[in-house]
Amino acid sequence: MANTPSRVTTVTKVTCTPQLSLSALSTAATDKEIIGKQSRWVHPHLIESIDPIKGRQLRASQDIPAGTCILIDCPYAIIPVVDNPVTNEGLLCSNRACNRALRAPASRVVCSKSCLSDVAWCSTTCRDSNMAYHNFECNWLKRYAVPIRKKWGEYIFGMSWVIVRLLASQHVERITRLEDEEVRPMHEWKCDWRGVESLCGSVDSWSHEQVRSWTLLVKKYLQKSAVLPHDMTPDQVLHLICQEEANSFGLYPRETGIYPCPEPPIDRGEQYAAAVYPIAAMANHSCIPNMMHKPDESGRMIFTASQDILAGQECCISYFDLTEHINLTSRREHLRKSFRFTCQCHRCASEAPAQNSSDWSAMPLMEL
Ligand SMILES: C[S@@+](CC[C@H](N)C(=O)[O-])C[C@H]1O[C@@H](n2cnc3c(N)ncnc32)[C@H](O)[C@@H]1O
């Protein structure tokens, strides 16, 4: 899980017209509302196209002024990142259309089966309207959360939980579709399971050692079983892990991708969640991005134009905090290590010739 950069800014006024207001998610949402009827929003001048090197990309079909809201995407799967499992500060409501930050433990609604202390809701309404989703993960969490955390560490536990929540959303999407054929994505963008299937990612990007380790993880904890009733083969789950690793976003309290970086630098803050967004995942990275991104209080990812974007230009975010990795070598090393690609953005291309002895283009790709 890696994606997403951030940074605070005093940006120009954001203009957007989401189909539902931000407050629409402040009340509990049912599973039917979650599939296809969330307040996702895509700017009418944003289109998808294909770049021969980078693959899918987001592009402006007409000029988009700085400050314009370009995309509001809802998480298909989201988990809290808990620094301290003992105090469990920083939890989010487990209703996947609410995701609001939870207050003191005493006011939280917890699972009646006590599956995992990281699972809690802000109200009984939020819990009760979300049971089909939670029931899918509940037994798995109860059985495997503690052993995975203990043996594999927090990162792998979080990654595994995102995979389970992706499968839980797929499960709910299927049963909801059967009940109500009208429930369809609101536009042509693939924001349901088809969006997850379209995500890039491949075992070929990873070292043999990494793939072996994930293969073992799938075999022990993530393959089809009584506590995880999905219909994917172990190879398909492995592929899903590669997709998740190439496309998930870290959620940070402040914007990522303000460029040029403000002086003094303002970082994006501490990561508090991780999520997969089917449409936002189409944004490629640039070290000189023209969009910044930040989650809202419901875990939706908001892309905003940080400069005027001309018709035909690619709309890019920064995958990392630009205040942390400043020179070319540091940026490239970070992208190779965490995101498994060599950046082809204009800034890297223009800075590359200035580097001589540390020129990355002359170095073989490392097995990390
Ligand atoms: C989150 S996905 C972005 C969408 C992706 N292009 C697709 O086809 O779905 C991240 C992947 O896009 C490609 N990518 C993104 N930014 C890039 C860049 N600046 N240079 C080269 N490849 C990039 C890499 O393959 C990376 O693993």
TrEMBL record:
Residues 44-320 form the SET domain. Pfam families: SET. This is SET domain-containing protein. Gene3D superfamilies: 1.10.220.160, 6.10.140.2220, SET domain (2.170.270.10). It comes from the Eukaryota. Transmembrane segments: none annotated.
